[in-house]
Amino acid sequence: MTTGTAEFSKRLDQTAEDTEALLAKLLSDATESDEIVRPKRLIEAMRYSSLGGGKRLRPFLAVESAAVFGIPRESALLVGAALECIHCYSLIHDDLPAMDNSDLRRGRSTLHKAYDDATAILAGDALLTIAFDIITRDAIHKDAQVRLLLTRALARASGVGGMAGGQILDLAGEGRFGDREPVDVARLQQMKTGALLRFGCIAGAILGQSSQKEYQALDDYGKALGEAFQIADDLLDVEGDAAALGKPAGADAALGKTTFVTQLGIDGAKQRVSDLLARADAALSVFGNRGDVLRAAARFVAERKN
Question: What residues form the membrane-spanning segments (predicted)?
């Protein structure tokens, strides 16, 4: 392993551990000021889908992009926790019968299977909402303008022009609303999957009150990493197995989804990933060796097995 790869693995594991602990605290049954009560079933469902699993790649990107600018880890972890709440909410809703109708997530029953549809919908709603409670907290940054920019960026990554918009384009491409609609796979990826990954990367630039050049570098890196992540996901759906993935393989084909693999073929998709790694590496050149861990993150995304 290279120094960057070894350090990456260590830091990824540490961020996962720290994020787990922080989420467990944030999603406890103890109420915050202005809250009345946290219903036991709702909190349990939120915790079921948020704790005890996942690589925490999105919080990791927030923490490591912030580290480039010397931002306190505690601040970046809060941003990462907000981002992870959005991600976990999206998985809950994506698994519902009305969406992808999945029974398995991270090697265990999806939330609507473990509980019921109504609880799953409300747990997703609550995770989405608490994310914006977290991202606005004073502990993240003393400058309210920085917190405002983070909040706006997270909302746009999550909403109609980002993840949620991408989800409906995906469903339209399956023919859920009539005839199958043409799918621009690159745009769909940028919205459904890439927008939250990109936010993790630009969050550090916002926290660090970076120069425009530095912001653009992390933006370019985040877009390349996000696309590489989706292509790797599409390849895993074709070449992976359910035991390694922790969810059913072949789900995209079963739903008739248009993916990078269906458009580029397996060899073409793999070449595209290689090109994206080069693009991510070039984007980070402005940071010198401060970008080594992020470089390793891009390689990890491209080569992952689950």
Answer: none
Q: Which residues of 106-135 are buried (b: 16+ CB within 10 A; e: fewer)?
A: eeeebbbbebeeebbbbbbebbbebbeebb
pLDDT at 8: 86
What end-to-end distance do the CA atoms of the chain give, in Å? 20
Q: Are 272 and 234 in contact (CB under 8 A)?
A: no
Q: Which one-letter amino acid corresponds to residue 299?
A: R
Compute the distance between CA of residue 288 and CA of residue 290 in angstroms, rounded to an integer: 5
Residues of the chain with pLDDT under 70: 1-4, 240-256
Tell me if the pTM is above 0.85: yes
> What is d(CA 80, CA 16) in angstroms, rounded to the nearest whole number?
10
Amino acid at 101: N
Enumerate residues 6+ apart whose C-beta is below 8 A from 137: 78, 147
| Residue 52 to residue 24: CA distance in whole angstroms | 10
pLDDT tens for each residue of 35-70: 999 999 999 999 999 999 789 999 999 999 999 999
Q: Which two tokens stand for residue 280?
A: 């991510």
